[in-house]
Amino acid sequence: MSGARKVAAFFDLDGTLLPPPSLEWRFIGYLLSRDAITTAHVRGWLGEFCRLVLRDPRAATVANKMYLAGLPESLATEWKASEAFGSLPLCADGIECVAQHFARGHEVILLTGTLAPLARAIAAKLPGPVEICATELETAEGHWTGRIVGEHLSGAAKVRALGFIAERRGLDLKQCYAYGNEMADLPMLMSVGWPVAVNPSVWLQRCARRLGWQVCHWTRAQESRAAGEPPMLASKAGR
Prior knowledge:
Blueprint: E1 8-11, H1 23-33, H2 39-52, H3 57-61, H4 74-80, H5 83-86, H6 92-103, E2 107-115, H7 116-123, E3 131-140, E4 143-149, H8 156-169, E5 177-180, H9 186-189, E6 194-198, H10 202-211, E7 214-216
Parallel strand pairs: 1-2, 1-5, 2-3, 5-6, 6-7
Antiparallel strand pairs: 3-4
């Protein structure tokens, strides 16, 4: 694609490529099974929540990672090697859709609000090299501080990240694809020429139908596809 502006597919992760619960909640479950999260970590999270909730409710909730304060970064690597990670139920339809984009020479980018170390681990399960744009954690001497670097990537923050990537990679957004499942993904979906609502929330499905977007329902297992057909990339016929 040299000499021309390139095409990319932007994929949300939680609720799109991975069914609920979210990747972060699954990681929390792993940490709890290891007794890594203590009462002190919970108190730290609650303290940060109380400090911020009136001034900035969003920072008090989605951007509050104080439950990780003081934990070593190596826990993400250990989790990646665990049985729990190996059995993550990624949507087979979504994985095949990613493969189709690679087959067409498109770049594939995970644009997600989940934690970047977890998103990077998921990248190893995808059928090709993907760029990761996710919520970065602040670290100090190999340990997480409980704070994030930059913005939590959801809503308008996703759009800002998408625009930065498009400029840096020379992407033609009118020819790009985006896949998301909830209203927080709406600004991202509206930024590309080929938006796809995947396993959409009620409100996103209503918006998608009104705007003529493609709506997909991706399943966990290959054999559970209703019609036995592989998922197709967005097309005018499907919008």
